[in-house]
Recover the amino acids of this structure.
């Protein structure tokens, strides 16, 4: 199969991270794409990413600051990876689809439901592939957790506890992640957790929750972000700034299966940090270690039996990684791994890229479609909307935009209403 020519659109910190995924795929036996261009309104950032690509890939992609000009100059490009800031996803992704590109869009698909709808409608009109770059579910440990649940290792799922507490008053990666109109940390990070809840337990029904803003002044801190990819811009961030977007969400989620989830995402937590991902069932409990750390899952079964070694695989007979994932992580049934975070991150991003190029080449649909990405966003927005409405809300109300009091201000700023 010929390699699919692609471009990265957005050459900031996330663009730098995604480049490492391209590099990891290049080094594998499953390379099915060529990075031929990068595009960013900031020409300096675009040139810097092109220079990094030359070092990591052995060939420098062409640099552009305008999508239309890129399309005219390089009509051979078939796909673009949109890694701009979250608030611009709906504009950039739609522009790319209207130019005839297949699109992989970094999560969240958009920060509002109307934004998601705009992108999905453009994809349907163009007939092009729309993939959402949601990476946590691609971690082999989460693949194993899903298989354990589906194969009945803990019986019928009853309760999931998803908790992340910490951060204090420090900036989370970048200032825009603390502003309501540009995408709060509650949605930019929380959409990962939303996807995992739905990946583990299935379709959501109702949400009773709320968002809070605890730290109205944020302080820069070290500002390098995950893997240090944002370090080059850290000095440009003010020592402190005012936050306008929620830094915490709390929710009780009822799934259509009858299971429930207690979800706490508290990025203003002080003192003792907490990271919990437990799933309780009718015969036991699964303790997941989180994402991209490779630590083993623990099973606590009735009768006092605890399993935290390779024996766990016998409880997940359906678990089998794809050939690409098996190649990158060292086997079809990996139950633990030990790589530095940037290496793990690059391997999982490589899986996204490989699938995206395969979808372009074959016409198959990606695992995380626009509809899946839209539902992930709906789960987060349901917490905000429930808090404003003062009552539980249904996911149907959120996805149909019947309840939108929280999002309306954002959509008005976007020109979507």
């Amino acid at each position: 199969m010929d390699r699919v020519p692609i471009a990265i659109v957005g050459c900031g910190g996330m663009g730098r991270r995604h480049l490492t995924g391209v590099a990891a795929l290049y080094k594998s036996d499953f390379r099915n794409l060529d990075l031929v261009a990068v595009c960013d309104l900031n020409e300096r950032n675009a040139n810097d990413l092109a220079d990094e690509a030359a070092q990591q890939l052995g060939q420098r992609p062409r640099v552009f600051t305008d999508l239309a000009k890129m399309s005219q100059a390089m009509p051979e490009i078939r796909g673009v990876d949109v890694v701009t800031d979250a608030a611009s996803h709906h504009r950039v992704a739609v522009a790319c689809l209207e130019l005839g590109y297949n699109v992989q869009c970094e999560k969240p698909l958009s920060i509002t439901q109307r934004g998601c709808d705009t992108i999905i409608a453009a994809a349907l009109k163009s007939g092009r592939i729309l993939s959402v770059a949601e990476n946590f579910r691609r971690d082999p440990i989460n693949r194993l957790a899903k298989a354990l649940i589906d194969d009945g290792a803990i019986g019928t799922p009853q309760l999931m506890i998803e908790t992340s507490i910490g951060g204090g008053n420090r900036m989370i990666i970048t200032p825009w992640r603390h502003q309501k109109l540009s995408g709060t940390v509650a949605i930019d990070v929380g959409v990962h957790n939303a996807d995992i809840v739905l990946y583990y337990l299935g379709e959501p029904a109702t949400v009773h929750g709320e968002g809070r803003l605890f730290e109205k002044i944020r302080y820069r801190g070290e500002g390098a972000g995950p893997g240090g990819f944002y370090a080059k811009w850290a000095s440009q961030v003010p020592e402190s700034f005012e936050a306008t977007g929620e830094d915490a969400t709390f929710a009780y989620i009822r799934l259509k299966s009858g299971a429930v989830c207690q979800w706490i995402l508290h990025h203003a937590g002080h003192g003792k940090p907490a990271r919990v991902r437990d799933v309780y069932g009718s015969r036991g409990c699964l303790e997941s270690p989180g994402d991209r750390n490779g630590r083993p899952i623990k099973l606590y079964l009735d009768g006092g039996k605890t399993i935290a070694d390779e024996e766990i695989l016998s409880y997940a007979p359906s678990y089998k990684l794809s050939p690409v994932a098996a190649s990158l992580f060292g086997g079809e049934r990996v139950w633990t791994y030990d790589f530095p975070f940037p290496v793990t991150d690059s391997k999982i991003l490589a899986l996204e890229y490989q699938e995206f190029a395969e979808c372009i080449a074959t016409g198959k649909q990606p695992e995380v479609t626009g509809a899946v990405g839209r539902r992930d966003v709906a789960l987060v927005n349901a917490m905000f909307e429930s808090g404003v409405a003062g009552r539980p809300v249904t996911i149907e109300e959120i996805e149909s935009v019947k309840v939108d009091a929280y999002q309306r201000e954002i959509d008005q700023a976007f020109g979507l209403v």
